Amino acid sequence: MCMGRCLVGLTFCTCYLAFYLTNKYVLSVLKFTYPTLFQGWQTLIGGLLLHVSWKLGWAEISSSSRSDVLTWLPASVLFVGMIYAGSRALSKLAIPVFLTLHNVAEVIICGHQKCFQKEKTSPAKICSVLFLLAAAGCLPFNDSQFDPDGYFWAIIHLFCVGDLFSVLDFPFLYFYRFHGSCCASGFLGFFLMFSTVKLKSLMAPGQCAAWIFFAKVITAGLSILLFDTILTSATVGCLLLGGLGEALLVFSERKGV
Asked: Rounded to two decimals, what is the model's pTM?
């Protein structure tokens, strides 16, 4: 059982790494900056693969009434905005910077849980939120490759992600094909979605969060070697602060508080 979980975790990390590196290569190196067109390709391929998986019995798709589908419309709008803004941001920002800004969505989710769902928040989680905010807030002033458009789209992206996960009820198990909310090939998007669902179904929230954190670390680290990234000591400090914040978030999830 432990070996199976490790295999699922490693598969998820591999898909996560390939997903972001491929996206960055297409969006930045090849200069393919047409998110709407890429989104259509992603949806077509992902939909076909999902249908094949359903026919083979690998995925379960429950039928829904028209009224149920109408309730998904607000989430669908946020979902499209999340993908579009994420792809525009990733085309202009380094992957470590993008992931650090993306983590601020966790702050929105935590704030909603605290204010509206009245969930108890542990000191570790509060420190995590503060570190994530501080890291993202300091980045624009210390990023030697600062791009105002990239940060603008990143802000829209993280608000779409935060609102989508904290406020709206949306069938992510079956329709969430874009982890990290940016354009990708249909195949990578689908297999990452599939491995994410498998990861969450087999592991406790703390273990799942640890694997996601590990995937982000290796993706950010390898991207620095593969793409033209300029990191000053101040930028590295912001990234490390964001990493510390997410590590505390993983710790709070594993403790179940």
From this structure: 0.79
